[in-house]
Amino acid sequence: MKQNHPVVLVRKRKAHHNAHHGGSWKIAYADFMTAMMAFFLVMWLLAIASPQELTQIAEYFRTPLKVALTGGNKSSAESSPIPGGGEDPTRQDGLVKKQPNAEQQAEARRFNKLRERLDQLIESDPRLRALRPHLLINLMDEGLRIQIIDGKNRPMFKTGSAQVENYMRDILRAIAPILNDLPNKISLSGHTDDLPYATGERYYSNWELSADRANASRRELIAGGLAEGKVLRVVGMAATMSLKQHGADDSMNRRITILVLNKQTQQGIEHENAKSEAAEISRPQALKQLAPQPVAASTQKTPAGEAAVQPSAPEAPQPEAPTTAISPAPAAGPSTNPQRLTVEVIP
Question: What CATH number was assigned to the domain covering residues 102-271?
Answer without folding.
Answer: 3.30.1330.60
